[in-house]
Structure formats: C-alpha cells, structure tokens
Amino acid sequence: MAGQGTVGVGFIGTGMISDTYLENLNSFPDIRVVILGDLDEARAAAQAAKHGVALSGSAADVLAHPDVEIVVNLTIPAVHAQVSLQAIAAGKHVWTEKPISIDRASGRELLEKAAAAGLRVGVAPDTVLGPGVQTARRAIARGDIGTPLSAQTVMQYIGPDVFHPDPEFLFATGAGPLFDMGPYYVTTLVHVFGSVARVAAFGSQGRTQRTIATGDRAGTTFPVEVPTHISAIAEFEKGGVSQSVLSFDSPLGKTGYVEITGTEATMLIPDPNTFGGEVLFARAGFGEPEWESIPLTGVLAGRGLGVLDMARAIRSGGAHIATGAVGYHVFDTLASIEDAVNTKQVVDVQSSIDAVPLVAEDWDPFAATLSGVPVG
C-alpha cells in the first residue's frame, strides 16, 4: 500500500498498554490514528473519547477502514498471530506487541504471508530504538568497551498480579516472565551481539495460584500455567555469552539490569523497558569501579517509535528496524529457552538474522517528514 502524507493507523486491542501508545502516536506528526477496535466495543469507545480519536468499533471495523495502513495489534499474546494474520489478509501492514506469536509455526506463517503480500511486520519492543539503548550501542560500536565478550541481565520482582487489574494472561501460555519481559532483554542482547546460536536454562514455579491484588476483581485467584522463574545462558553466533534471570517470584525487586563486559571496560545499559536512562561504563581495574556516564544522543519519546519508524519506511521504501524477522528470532530464542527448561538440555536456536542497524542520531519522531496530503 503506497501513498503520500501521514500514515493512517488503527488499533485492535485497547487495554492498559494502549494509553501510552495513543499518547505517543498522537504526538507524532507523521502518524494519524484513525480508529480503535476491541472485542469490548465500549472500551474502545472510551479510549477513543479519552484520546481524541474520531472512530471506534470492532476489530472488523478497523480491518475494513480504507484509511488504515498499519494495524497496531495490542491483543493478548494467545491471539497475536491470529490477529496479525487477519490484518495481512486485509491488506494492512501490522505492528504487534511482543511476542510475535506463541508458537513458531504461526510466527513463520505470518512472516511468509506478509512477504508474499508485500506487507510489513513490526514487532515490539521498540524501547531499544530509544536514546538509552541506542547511545550504548553507538558507544560499543566505536570501541568504548573494546570487543564485547559477555553479558548479564536481571529482571526480578514479585509479579504483575500486585498491580495489574486483569493479570491472568501474564501467567498464561505465551507470557510469564520469559515471554512478557524476556523480549526486552533478549532484543537488547541481539542488538549488541547479533543472533543467538544456542541456549541452556532451568525454570521453576513459585506458586501454582496467584491472587489479584488490585481493581474491581481484587481477591480473585487464578491458576499459573508457566514457570515464574527462569535462569538462562545464551551463546551468540559471532561470539559472546550471556546469563539472564527473569522472575515473578522475588520479593527483592531488581529490574532493568543489563551489563555488557568487553575486553577494555564494562557497560551498564539503561533499563530496556524504558527509552532513556543513564549509560555508564567502567574501565578494567581493581576494587570498586569508577563509573563514567555517556551523554544520551537522540530524541527521547516513548512506545510507538517502532510504528513511526515503519510508517516512514513505508513512505520511503526503505527498511524499518524492529522487523518481524528480529521479533521472530527473539521469540525463537525465548521458545528455545522454554524448550531447554522442559528438556534440561542445550537447545540450538534455528533462526538467524542480519546485524540490526542503528537508529540515526538525528532521527526525530516529532518532526513532520512526510509530504503531501493524507492518504484516503
């Protein structure tokens, strides 16, 4: 689908995360949010009124709207691939929340059908496109820490049932700490080291049931379907290893920890679930490290950067960065970690990707770069 001017976007799924997407996409001049859709049409209407979107309705209404070029898929993980395939069948590009799917077959099918139709797939997280991770990547690329050798990541806290009013899906197949939070950390590692070659992992489940702590359904219990603590090791195709903890079982909160060790220095990358933060590095030495800060470069924005990058690439004909291929490789890596937990064996990751490009330092999400009149 080609055209000039702002790119029309429609949402399918208007739950909790849609607020931040709408706040940001409505602030980008190159994006025009056309319509919101949801199984709960009243919820879609409420979000449309809240964020000044003219139209709302069902998923079918979004897919049928002629001005929608990109569908933003914010449904639950279990139907990510199904909804994305419907968008492709309707002739729309699609940006989907992570993970791309909950099984490899439907993820591959999505990419194959999109390619056959000449349509694009983008996959969250797009936090890695923000100045935090990008500044760190530029510093690594210019040799500030020497050759990257290894990494450690930690994401542990007591779990989303303490703050989310409807947390069941976060403890269901396709979620848990591995698939809900793992994409932020594995995507960051893939941006730094490239494709993952093989993984080993162990997992456990702290409780078989959880209780909702907030909202109208506080006190409601529900079953836990997945491991809620994962310890994983990864080896990368081009060298480097990482070890990661992902846990919904820890009363001691420690999140956003990404440490990259190189031949000359160690770098702390900001929380990959955010867009900014502080990039720190310490050179080799004895005793307590002396941390130096690297000033952030780039314009700080929020969720929706990936949608915008894809929209501009649609108009220019160039490549976007948070591609379906990257999203699939990250999912394949996470699924391989799950396989390793289940089999207690080292598992080879079957997919591979090219090096992920950097965001240009002068890339400005708040600039109006698309000329002409809106399509439609």
From TrEMBL:
One Pfam family assigned to this protein is GFO_IDH_MocA_C3
Where would I find the Gfo/Idh/MocA-like oxidoreductase N-terminal domain in this sequence? 8-123
* Protein name, as recorded: Oxidoreductase
Its source organism is Microterricola viridarii
> What range does the record give for the signal peptide?
none
PANTHER family in UniProt: BCDNA.GH03377
List UniProt keywords, sorted A-Z. NAD, Oxidoreductase
- GO MF, one example: oxidoreductase activity
